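tool_call: predict_structure(chain=1)
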Amino acid sequence: MDLHWMELLLSHSGQTLRLGLEFLSLISVAIGLLAVLSGARKLRLREIPPHLIQRGPVTLARVTFGSWVALALEFQLGADVVLTTISREPNALIQLGAVALIRTFLNFFLALELRQEDRPSEHQRSMNDS
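tool_result:
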């Protein structure tokens, strides 16, 4: 049985999916940049807590853009998984695994920083309690 055509179909499908995920990653960063530059509420991924709005525009911009970058990293990680799946070379698999690991750590620390920004400061909590 000739499975060559199935292998080609899998390879082409994987490449198309990978390119689609990379495109979505690029679009996510562009939308994040537009959201920061325009300050448009509708372009934010999530509702911004009032304590962040009170901290100022820089914090608000960091959280808004950081959310979009985190989404872009997720798309890039998905693209890496697809590429790893369709790759046949051991060196390519090792390299892609290292890149995926780095992107996972970047996304983890970015999400951690965003969560820390989301928490109200001690000063804000004491003012809310009063």
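agent: The mean pLDDT is 79. Proceeding to next step.
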